[in-house]
Structures are given as structure tokens and as C-alpha cells.
Amino acid sequence: MGFRTLDGVEVAGKRVLVRADLNVPVQDGKITDPTRIERLSPTIRELSGTGARVVVCSHFGRPKGKVVPEMSLRPIATALGEVLGREVRFVAECVGPQAEAAVAALADGDVLVLENTRFHAGEEKNDPGLARGLAVLADLYVNDAFSAAHRAHASTEGVAHLLPACAGRLMQAELTALDAALGNPARPVMAVVGGAKVSTKLDLLGNLVQRVNMLLIGGAMANTFLAATGMPVGRSLQEPDLHGIARDILARAAEAGCMVLLPVDVAVAQEFRPGAPFRMLPVMIPHDGMILDVGPATVGLATERLKTMRTLVWNGPLGAFETPPFDAGTLAFAKAVAEATQAGRLVSVAGGGDTVSALRTAGVSEALTYVSSAGGAFLEWMEGKTLPGVAALEG
């Protein structure tokens, strides 16, 4: 994977446009998870510390091309300043005379945040005019928003063709980790895929069975595979119309030499609610039962297989982890992955919102090799798709 980085780039005195992802969760006017801001800070500090005039742009929410005051980046700019421990300026436009004047007023080392790029309809349409408006603000473009790299928008792809462009440190770390997980991994490789629906991850499963040595399927999507192989799953969430596709994926895996692990025991309840009583059963589910988690025998089998693996890539929980006690399987396996990683036996890369939350709940998010803060981009990368924001940095 060949992409340009900041290494060897002279930035002192230059205007550097940094595409960040400041689309952080906000509730009642307060940021509930500053992870994306914190992960951006090393790139900003490096650029500012070497005398660049740093101009940060980002989207926030879905204002649909209109100015929505509640989706302004002004409070996010304040939060970025708090993380950096320095003043961060803000301008209430991202292109045009007001933005150009704010950039012109910067001194070496200053940091400026532009207003929400999605206040312009041209952002999501990858409008050349908006891309040019952003390009005139800078001498160099740095994309540090892997989580938005799957979108061909004006600020993620269009402007990259109008300025010298490279990856920021967060983007660089993401791409390096992802290459180690699937691009050029140490083998054998295990992939773990969970979540609710097979239909949302057909491309992912189809790509993985061609590229990994072992595939562990969990979450409600495992119910579809179990039912497709003739196992009774009771009232469990599943997709009967995808049984044929599930069998096809299993056949393709066998042909490619990829071993597929499905649950061998499960947590079964009569209702889905916190603290609901449940039984651990082999995969022969009563007609009124619901599968809500994998059982200890499944976790044990997966953990044993993990001991023979060199690389693991993970997207999606193994059960309904948001609702205890149905988080037990995901948390137990997460701890096994963390232990193998810390022992130096495993390169582990995980991503996707639910996966990150589960790892944080298990207290192991810092113990894996790399945890991606990206959602859709991480999934599309696992599907083997070209990400426009990354392709624009290659060469």
C-alpha cells in the first residue's frame, strides 16, 4: 500500500488544510466521547510545532447543505483547543472571503477550525467549485480522517487533486494497521464478524472467506447461518430469505480453505431485556426461545483456535452486548484477544462502533494492536472496496 505521508514534507510557514473527522457524539451540548479529537491532536501538534499555519476542516452531523446552528463546529473548536492546551481559532465559514481572511490572519503555528463543510450542498456532491474554494486556503492538503475516507466528497477527495496531498498521522496509523491485518498479514489470519444482519455484511463475508484462514461468525447473523444449515433457532432474529446465500458463503469458504466457526452453544431467553433469565443450551433451540449470546463452549473453542493464529481482524459483537447478561461472550473473547496480543502472539485490529464500545466495556481497548475509530470506512475496507479518500493519497 503506497500512500504519501508527512515524512520529509516541509511545512514551516505553509498553510496546511487538514481534513479531520470532528463528527463527535454530542448530548445536551456536551461531547460524550472525545476520542476522535484526541486522535487528531498528534497531527495538529506536529504541524503547528513545526511552524505550519494549520487550517482544520470537517463535517458534523447531517445538515443537508443548509446552515443548522446546532451543528456548528464552534464548540468542537473549543474542545480541540482544550485537548491541545492552546488557543484554536474559529471562522463561521469554510470557503469564501470570510474564510480566506481568517486564514490570511494566521501566524506560523496558529490553528484555525473552519465551519461545518456540510453546510454547503456541494460537499456531499463533491462539487468542483467547493473543492477549489477549499484549495485556495492552503498550500498543502493533509487527510487525517480515515473514518470519512469512504466518501468521495469535496473535502475528502476533490480537494486532494488540487493540492499536494498526503496522509496525516492518524490516517497513516490506520492504513498501516489495516495493511498488517488484511493487506499483508502474518498468517494464519482469523476474522471475527458479528452484528445483527447478514444482509448488511454480504460483501464483507464474501471478501473475507477468500482472504483469511478462519472466520468466526457471531451475533444474530450467526442465527441465519445456523438456520441455513438446518439447526432450529426458535424465535431468534434471523433472515430466512438469505439461507441460500448463507449456504453459498459456507461453500465458498470451504472451496477457499477458510474454516468457518459457528456457535456450538448459546444463551437462550424467552424475552430480550436487561437481566432476563436465560439458559445455556447446545444449538437446538426450543420454538419459543431466542438466541442472544454465544456460550462458554463457543468462546472456549474460539480461544483455542486463536492460539494458532498470528493475526486477527474483528468487526461486530458476538451477542447482544449492550444488554447484560448477553454481553458475556463478547467480553470474554475480547479479553482472550487482549491477552494473546499483550503476550506478543497476535496482531489484533478491530473497528466499528459496536466493536469499539464492546472493547471499551471489556476494558481492553488499549490492549489490542489497533482499534479503529472508523465505522463505515472500516467496514468498506474489510469488504475490499477502494476508498476514494485513500486512493487520492496514493502514489
Mean pLDDT: 95
The total strand number stands at 17
Q: Provide the CATH superfamily of the largest domain.
A: Phosphoglycerate kinase, N-terminal domain
Which percent range fits the helix content?
A: 25-40%
Structural class: alpha/beta
* Number of helical segments with 4 or more residues: 14
Residue runs with pLDDT of under 50 for 5 or more positions: none
Q: What is the CA-atom radius of gyration, in angstroms?
A: 23 Å
The order of strands across the largest sheet is: 5-6-4-1-7-8
Q: CATH topology of the largest domain, which one? A: Rossmann fold
Summed up, the domain count is 2
Indicate the proportion of strand residues.
Answer: 15-25%
User: What is the class of the largest domain in the CATH system?
Assistant: Alpha Beta
What CATH architecture of the largest domain do you see?
3-Layer(aba) Sandwich
Shape: elongated
What characterizes the major β-sheet? Answer: 6 strands, parallel
Please give the oligomerization state of what you see.
single chain
Distance between the termini: 9 Å
